[in-house]
Amino acid sequence: MTGGAAWFVRNKLYAWECHPWPSIPADMREIIAAELVVGVKLSDELEALALVQMAPDVFLHPTTSWGGPKIAFRMASIDDDHLAELVTEAWRVQAPRYLRREFDGVDA
Prior knowledge:
A 5-stranded antiparallel β-sheet has the order 1-2-3-5-4, with helices on both faces. The chain contains 4 helices and 5 strands; from the N terminus they run ββαβαββαα. 39% of the residues lie in helices and 20% in strands. It is α+β, with helices and mostly antiparallel strands. The N and C termini lie far apart (34 Å). It has helices at residues 26-34, 45-54, 80-94, 97-104; strands at residues 6-9, 12-17, 37-41, 59-60, 70-74. β1 and β2 (12-17) form a beta hairpin. The protein has one domain (6-104): Aspartate Aminotransferase, domain 1.
């Protein structure tokens, strides 16, 4: 799968440690080889494009459409609040409705 740490909800991947696979463009492979880069699922592709435009020093351009929509980011460059928001939203994208409702404190 990712070759590193990965997080799942109900057997669905929502966050993972990126690795410099040969299929990734060379410039991004260098970044991923040199520092910790994490990927997360997103709700749509436009969100990925907006994040890259908003903070190109933090977010990397998606390299494949497999498993999309998704985004990768540099752990050393992201602030704690944004990290928590991204991981929580990635979890929400993959979690079944009953878990999202439980997380939100909504009665069934």
